[in-house]
Design goal:
Layout lengths: L22 H4 L3 E3 L14 E6 L7 H8 L5 E2 L2 E2 L4 H18 E11 L10 H12 L3 E9 L10 E2 L7 E2 L4 E8 L24 H7 L3 E3 L5 H4 L8 H10 L5 E4 L6 H8 L3 E6 L2 H15 L23 H15 L3 H12 L2 E9 L4 E8 L5 E7 L12 H16 L8 E6 L8 H9 L6 E4 L3 H13 L11 H14 L1
Parallel strand pairs: 1-12, 2-5, 2-11, 6-10, 11-12, 15-16, 16-17
Antiparallel strand pairs: 3-4, 5-9, 6-9, 7-8, 13-14, 14-15
């Protein structure tokens, strides 16, 4: 195009060579060593993705926390004492990673920018290293939004004066680059060639992951015993987006091992490199604990739509179960909801049902076998980060729609609202309390779409004509109150 004609064209490779990694190498996933020598451990053209967050260069206090005395040498390598030395160290590490990346393999580098007097764009310096010095293809920058911050009580610089206001840092960057080509090596026929080819990204997750702003809460430094951890949702989303199941994923600045946990959880083969033995031991312990978690089954085509699959009791395992099924089916939440409603026995009267004069729209208007109608709100998506009603804005939008609808009703004209979601709010959470506070006279029932027991026992009963909520989300006491409320309205 005319736009790209203004720039020097990048060098694009047609190299398709992918080198397998021996099992003996993968058997030791945590290596205590200098990451500038990764190419001495892994063969060239063998790694699908590098995910990492380099240690911040913020001074002696942090370096003491991360690696002990910054003036001592560890394994013959000094901790960088100047910013230029730090950038050179990053250059050398990324150069080693580049050698082992397969053609089209990606690096995703999480960085926080530095300082306020003056501000230093570490992301710009790393882009220069990756793109200008190493010749990689820049694919984009993801803004990781860690907090909202609008109502915070702490500000920097001059308060409410133009003298010297300072921007508060609520975001970090994830720089994404690829090696030599835009697509993965051998994009067609990977299965026939025995290469990893199975995606683990749901339709909803793909749509959210391909946005350039990700809202993910930060991780607790105390919980993972590292001063600057990133949350597992960050490397997990990158791994799901850029790799296939069984691909090789490495982290040259492993820290407490979060990338390896994400790789294990998504069925990838992970390796991490760390200079500090203490943090390496923490990473090993966390990885072993992750391996003890129950594995979520991979649902093949024969299981799509299958009912009566037993759900895990653990909340996180339950979310993993739902996500695996959504990925297998390959549909968005709204499409899955329509399938669930029809299978339960409801007639779809209207999709995207608008309510005149109220400015409201529900996902569906459905009818049971007696012709009684329900509005159905499909609340939230199948995403690995804050799915369904675990997302605050999704919860409050639902409550707002229901409140407006109920405010305009009278005793002779009452609507029933069913909620179908990818995930109910955590028990006892603020969202859970808010939803339960409005009672079944406002939300008739709230059901997780892949909770097969709830769909077959409750949703199917409503489709068959049952007019009272069945205990599940609502308690018997809630339902008794609903019946009293209904009798008073007659």
């Amino acid at each position: 195009s005319a736009f790209y004609a203004r720039f020097s064209p990048p060098t694009i490779s047609d190299d398709n060579e992918v080198t397998p990694v021996p099992d003996s190498v993968l058997a030791e996933p945590v290596r205590v060593m200098d990451s500038r020598k990764i190419h001495e451990v892994l063969p060239e053209n063998s790694v699908a993705l590098v995910v990492t967050s380099p240690p911040y260069f913020v001074g002696k206090e942090y370096e003491l926390a991360v690696a002990g005395d910054p003036n001592t040498r560890r394994d013959g390598n000094a901790i960088p004492t100047t910013y230029l030395e730090y950038l050179q160290m990053l250059h050398d590490v990324f150069a080693s990673c580049l050698r082992v990346l397969e053609p089209g393999g990606r690096m995703a580098i999480n960085v926080a920018n530095l300082g306020r007097k003056p501000y230093r764009s570490l992301s710009a310096d790393i882009i220069r290293i990756l793109q200008d010095d190493l010749g990689m293809l820049l694919r984009g920058e993801i803004i990781w939004q860690k907090a909202e911050g609008a109502t915070g009580s702490v500000a920097w610089g001059s308060y409410r004066k133009a003298t010297n206001p300072v921007l508060r840092d609520l975001t970090e960057r994830v720089i994404v680059v690829s090696k030599g080509r835009f697509d993965r090596a051998m994009p067609k026929g990977r299965a026939e060639k025995g290469l990893p080819h199975e995606s683990t990204l749901s339709a909803d997750d793909f749509m959210e992951a391909t946005l350039d702003v990700w809202k993910i809460a930060p991780e607790s430094a105390r919980r993972v015993q590292h001063p600057a951890p990133f949350p597992i949702e960050l490397p997990r989303r990158l791994i799901d987006l850029y790799t296939y199941r069984d691909d090789i994923v490495i982290d040259p600045f492993l820290g407490s091992g979060t990338t390896l946990l994400a790789a294990e959880r998504t069925g990838r083969q992970g390796m991490g490199f760390e200079l500090d033995r203490e943090y390496a031991d923490i990473a090993i312990a966390r990885l072993e604990a992750e391996k003890q978690r129950p594995k979520v089954p991979s649902y093949d085509a024969a299981q799509k739509g299958q009912l009566a699959i037993e759900l895990p009791d653990d909340g996180q395992d339950r979310l993993e179960h739902f996500q695996a099924r959504a990925t297998s089916v390959g549909k968005k939440a709204a499409d899955l909801a329509e399938q669930v409603l029809r299978s339960a026995g409801f007639e779809i009267v209207k999709e995207k049902a608008k309510i005149p004069k109220l400015g409201l729209q529900f996902s569906f208007l459905v009818a049971d076998k007696e012709g009684r109608q329900y509005y159905v709100d499909v609340s939230g998506a199948f995403t690995t980060v804050r799915p369904g009603l675990r997302r605050t804005d999704t919860m409050w939008k639902l409550l707002g729609r229901v409140h407006v609808l109920k405010a305009r009703e009278d005793s002779q004209n009452r609507s029933r609202v069913l909620v179908l979601t990818s995930s109910l709010p955590s028990n006892g959470s603020e969202g859970d309390k808010a939803l339960r506070a409005i009672g079944p006279h406002s939300v008739f029932d709230a059901i997780e779409m892949f909770d097969d027991a709830a769909v077959s026992q409750r949703l199917a009963a409503y489709a068959a004509g049952v007019q009272v909520p069945i205990a599940g989300f609502w308690t018997d006491a809630d339902i008794a109150e609903f019946e009293e409320f209904t009798e008073r309205q007659v």
